[in-house]
Amino acid sequence: MVSNPERRAALVDAGVEVLAREGARGLTFRAVDAEAGVPVGTASNYFTGRADLLRQIDTRLHVRLAPDPAVVAELMTRPKDRSLVTSFMYDLMARATRDRTGYLALMELRLEATRRPELLASYTKSVRGDLEEAMEFHRTAGLPGGDESVAVLYLAMLGLLLEHLTLPGVLEGVLPGVGVPDGLVERIVATVLPEEVQAQGPDQAQGQGQGQEGRI
């Protein structure tokens, strides 16, 4: 296969655009070539097949949707309380909203994984790894709540992101006086963490990994 990292990255990003816009059925090498503005046949020189392209799209989205280390570092200077968890959820929502195409491609990957056993295995491992990393971050950072809280936050934010980025009208006004999405983010965190949990000491709050739910 051709080895040109910059060209490969451009083709993968083109694949993200096609996947988000056309769905998995529209993700052909010819479509990727057209999106990237390269000669027909270029993508076939970089990927062994659609499954290979889908796996590399998954890897690329892991980077595109990951928290900014500088943002995480700044947030971690704040008190380790419920408001900090809310700030991490705001950051998650902001990243998904900024890269809506990337998030829609993630949803398409989920659907395609139900049809392709080889993708199901790798994608399940990838997403499970993100969830476990979020749990580890929560523990080492000394944030209130535990693994169960992170799991419920994950599920609640997954639902909020899905609706907000696909059918935003579903949520508008559903709770009078609660803004979408920020107000709902606040309600989610307040519901999952109804009482403040004593934060751990600063010597236990050194974790600065991918942060809360790097992807969902």
From TrEMBL:
Record keywords, A-Z: DNA-binding
Signal peptide segment: none
HTH tetR-type domain span: 5-65
Keyword DNA-binding listed: yes
Pfam families: TetR_C_31, TetR_N
InterPro entries in the record: Homeodomain-like_sf, HTH_TetR, TetR_C_31
DNA-binding residue intervals: 28-47
Designated name of the protein: TetR family transcriptional regulator
Organism: Streptomyces violaceus
Taxonomic classification: Bacteria, Bacillati, Actinomycetota, Actinomycetes, Kitasatosporales
